[in-house]
Amino acid sequence: MSESNEIAVSSVPTKGGRTSPLLLLAFGVIVLASVWIGFLMCDANEAGLLVRRFGYYTIALTFAWAVVAVVTITPDWIKSWPAISNHEWGVTVGAIGGLTLIAVVTVPYTYKVLFDEFVLQATAWCMHETREVGVIVRGYDIGGIFAPLQTYLDKRPFFFAFIVSLFHDLTGYREANAFALNTVLLPVSLGLLYLLARRLSTHLGAIAATVAMGGLSLLAQNATGSGMEMINLVMLLVVMHLGLLYLDQPDDRRLSALILCTVLLAQSRYESGLYVAPAALVILEGWRRAGKMIFPAAAVLAPALLIPYALHNTYLSGMPLLWELRDGESSRFGVQYLLENVHHALLFFFSFSGKLTNSWWLGVAGIPAFLAGAWVATRGIARWQKASSRDVLMVVFGGAISANLGLLMFYYWGQLDDAIVSRLSLPFSAFLALCIAWAITQLKEQWQRPLAKVAICGALLSYFGSGLVGNATHWRSNQQAREIAWEVDQVKAMPPATRLILTNKSALIWLINRIAAVQVVRARDRGEQIKYHLDQHTFQEVLVMQTYRPIGPRGGFQLEPADRLPDNFILEPVIERRVGTHAIRISRLVRVDEPTTKILKPVKEEMEDST
Q1: Are residues 471 and 490 in the same domain?
Q2: Which among 124, 212, 508, 519 is placed 20 to 30 Å from 499, CA to CA?
Q3: Cα–Cα distance, 580 to 599 (Å, whole number)
Q4: What is the pLDDT of the chain when averaged over all its residues?
Q5: Run of H or E residues at 240
Q6: Residue 221: inside a domain
Q7: Are residues 400 and 519 both part of a single domain?
Q8: Is the dihedral of CA 219, 220, 222, 223 positive or negative?
Q9: How many other C-beta atoms lie within 10 A of the C-beta of residue 605?
Q10: Does residue 554 carry a pLDDT above 80?
Q11: Following DSSP, what letter does each residue of 431-495 receive, concatenated?
Q12: Percent of the chain with pLDDT over 90
């Protein structure tokens, strides 16, 4: 499977050498201290407090160090690229640019995974404003400045939020910054994928992999949203590139860049901590090739840099309410979910309907190529010591990516054909695209070019036949997103004023727009406080969001019981709109009268981050 551009194992210099015992002792002490601090020293609340107060500074230090390390080895990385002609560069740039343009034109810029993306926006805002890792729960306009008065630590990793907060630091707070970042990451991810595929295949084979991934509707959805999937995909591809570069010629600089980017990858998504294991295997293989242990400062301090990840995990493990389990369930993982999740995964990868954000070409061509690659890797495992850098990397990281998807099959909410869950398949989809590129080179040389063209046409047929349908219909099927967008647009179109929103959805929707908000379920118990602020003109206007359901076939609507306010809340309708079978209404709170009878309805207090 070697090519002219592949660096053989024998070309790596092997130099003997002993590592200082003091250095090994320091590393051991740091490992033990990091495990104790991250997992044993603190309970859940204490761990959460440490992450909130110091998480920003640790991620900022790691990111700055990683940028310096990557910039230092960039000339070496560029030299390691395969020989690519100007024509090939033109075709590659054109393909990536075209796929990016199609995604931007066909998929609306809007929130795709509603609560997740609101939380990330709110976290980025807090990191920008206060340098704390937290999600705003309550905030008000004080003297013309919207200030957070209460925050909590969410379960979601915060590397993406940190990057967005840097955009806020440069341009001022804008919701659009998160969307802009993900859009930029789309061509970056496709470019990184092409360069990896080029190490595995010919130019046309790499183009086939790029088009297969770029023709995935799911990728376009995430590139026009504000979630953390794109940064996770890009960091995974970056780490794979750095792993290749390190295996080609192990040294301190290359290892430092690999380790620091792996630490950032671990904090990109919940499950991305799994990729620490394949990175560690690559490091060990590099030591074997170099004939010595390589211990730059980044390697010695890496366990300490992962302490925030461990503390965050301790916090999440001690907060079952954040697991968002269904009624009657007490565990997130179980064997009982396996068969159903595998069935839904097959539906996702092999659906031709256009109703899902999938690419059936990745299922039809990618999965057989993946199985073939797994068979070849299994047969060649006995000769692993003579394997090339690319083969070692593909087997190690391919196994980790597959294990990641396999773990999802045991998760209670692991149905890939679910619009919320499907985004978790992005790393595996990228690996399937790489497998397609590899499979093209396994046939006779005279067949490779025609086969690559067939692969390109198959990916385009999948995208234009059903992928673009998924691009268009996913937005229409996300009814609550349309409701939220309409409510926000209506309020923004009103004359400027200090407002309080009583919402029947998450208050985060309004807080990230720097508008004070309280959920209706909480407002019902706070009539006196709201009346006081109305009388004192703390807010120039109080608006109420409510839903009306149809009564029956004869027509008419009635207020959703959960959205009902006490009778002493006097409302004045402002505007309403039909959405599907129900109607949503924005009303103005005119006044709060004195209650004639005491309201004894118990209202369950819920955490602000419930979905």
Answers
A1: no
A2: 124
A3: 33
A4: 89
A5: helix 229-248
A6: yes
A7: no
A8: positive
A9: 8
A10: no
A11: HHHHHHHHHHTTS-HHHHHHHHHHHHHHHHHHIIIIIHHHHHHHHHH-HHHHHHHHHHHHHHTSP
A12: 68
Q: Across-strand partners of 311?
A: none
Rg (CA), the chain: 27
Provide the domain count of the chain.
2
pLDDT tens per residue across span 169-200: 999 999 999 999 999 999 999 999 999 999 99
At residue 389, the pLDDT reads 92
Please state the pTM of the whole predicted model. Answer: 0.91
338 with 205, same domain? yes
**Domain boundary pick from 417, 450, 477:** 477
85 within domain boundaries:
yes
Domain containing 588 equals 480-592
Say what the pLDDT of residue 325 is: 65
Contacts of 295 (CB under 8 A, 6+ apart): 19, 23, 24, 27
Assess if residue 599 is contained within a domain: no
End-to-end CA distance of the chain: 49
- CA distance readout (Å), 296 to 127, 195, 245: 30, 27, 16
Asked whether residue 8 carries a pLDDT value surpassing 60, the answer given is no
608, pLDDT greater than 50? no
Token output for 384: 């692993």
Helix (H, G, I), strand (E, B) or coil at 526: coil
Q: Is residue 423 within 8 Å of 277, Cβ to Cβ?
A: no
Q: Indicate the pLDDT class of residue 306, thresholds 50, 70 and 90.
A: very high
Judge whether 74 lies within some domain.
yes
| pLDDT of 601 | 45
Q: What phi and psi, each to the nearest 5 degrees, are found at residue 547?
A: -115, 140
Taking only the tens place, the pLDDT of each residue in 561-607 is 999 999 899 999 999 998 878 899 999 999 988 876 544 444 333 33
Please answer whether residues 257 and 233 qualify as being in contact, where contact means their C-beta atoms are separated by less than 8 angstroms: no
Please, what's the b/e burial string for 1-13 (b: 16 or more CB within 10 A of its CB; e: otherwise)?
Answer: beeeebbebeebe
**Whether the Cβ atoms of residue 200 and residue 394 lie closer than 8 Å to each other:** yes
Write down which residue in 477, 504, 538 finishes a domain.
477
Q: Which single residue is written with the structure tokens 């054909």?
A: 417
Q: What is the pLDDT of residue 316?
A: 86
Question: What is the average pLDDT across 447-467?
Answer: 95
